[in-house]
Specification:
This protein is α+β, with helices and mostly antiparallel strands. It has one domain: Nucleoside Triphosphate Pyrophosphohydrolase (Alpha-Beta Complex), CATH 3.90.79. It is about 25% helix and about 35% strand.
């Protein structure tokens, strides 16, 4: 029989400080991003960025720990539900291709939050509705060739660094077939 040893709370704080650079236990909210590829193009939506400017983004949303029925929420379910709400498209075979640890900073430069972004590649899109049911989406979704997305990123026409990071994860997945990860610092 193995004895279970509870972790020392001070060790948890020390580990969080080492890993995240903060003096408190890690509490990580999670967003899921759906990168849908069809015919060599990727699906994007228009949203407002933090400054209130319209920008392109991959369908993305927060993942609640439980769904509306009280069941444990799985990222693959969240990414598909969010995709449908933001685009009217359903997709299948969502699989994780990239992870970003997101460190948000306040105006004074101090860390104010840490979250995770899980980037999924989905396949076999099919339009099930022409209605977008997410009020944060501006207009209809659009399909872009990778070169067009690179141009949007260079002209700062994507929602932010997390959109650019998701695109880099997609590029690396196509090159190597490997899951990639990064750390993204976002000023507030």
């Amino acid at each position: 029989m193995t004895e279970r040893i509870e972790p020392d709370p001070s060790a948890v704080v020390a580990a969080a400080r080492d890993l995240l650079g903060v003096d408190h236990p890690a509490i990580m909210a999670t967003t899921v991003c759906s990168i849908v590829e069809h015919g060599g193009e990727l699906l994007m939506v228009r949203q407002l960025n933090r400054e209130g400017d319209e920008r392109w983004n991959f369908p993305t949303g927060w993942m609640a720990p439980v769904d509306e029925d009280g069941s444990v929420q799985l990222p693959e379910h969240s990414v598909n539900r969010n995709l449908l709400m933001e685009t009217g498209y359903a997709a299948s075979d969502a699989h994780l291709i990239g992870v970003s640890v997101v460190r948000e900073h306040g105006p004074d430069g101090h860390r104010v939050g840490t979250s995770l972004r899980l980037n999924y590649l989905s396949a076999h899109p099919r339009q099930t509705s022409y209605a977008v049911t997410d009020s944060d989406i501006l207009g209809s979704p659009a399909w872009f060739a990778p070169a067009e997305i690179e141009d949007l990123i260079s002209r700062k026409q994507v929602k932010g660094e997390l959109t650019a990071a998701a695109f880099r994860h997609w590029q690396e997945y196509h090159r190597s077939g490997e899951l990639t990860a990064d750390v993204v610092d976002i000023p507030n």
